[in-house]
């Protein structure tokens, strides 16, 4: 069986002199990236809702922009759900590993 190397080097947290644990900056950047993606998802959903309400109330007559916004919101939500599913699958795989 051939074992392939992992793309990113894996590092364990290094102990700090005061007894705490130094947090890796990649963890922070992942959390920030995930938070930004969720904010973008929320913004696309809000934009689609606003354009839909405007279209239904007669405030705007540009149906194409409303449909484009709804499609973008739908695709963004589908992407978020798939990313969540992959993260859950990865967690389940890790939890099944024998130590």
Q: Can you walk through the features of this model?
A:
This protein is mainly α and 99 residues long. It has one domain. The protein has helices spanning 25-57, 63-96. The longest helix has 34 residues, at 63-96. It starts with 24 loop residues before the first helix and ends with a helix. Residues 8-12 have low confidence and may be disordered.
Radius of gyration: 21 Å
Question: How many separate structural domains?
Answer: 1
Note the gap between the termini.
20 Å
How much of the sequence lies in strands comes to under 5%
Structural class: mainly alpha
Helix content: 55-70%
Could you describe the largest sheet, including whether it forms a barrel? none
Order of helices and strands: HH
| Low-pLDDT runs | 8-12
User: Count the strands?
Assistant: 0
Mean pLDDT: 82
User: Helix tally?
Assistant: 2
Shape: elongated
Brief write-up:
The protein is mainly α. It has two helices and no strands. The protein has one domain.
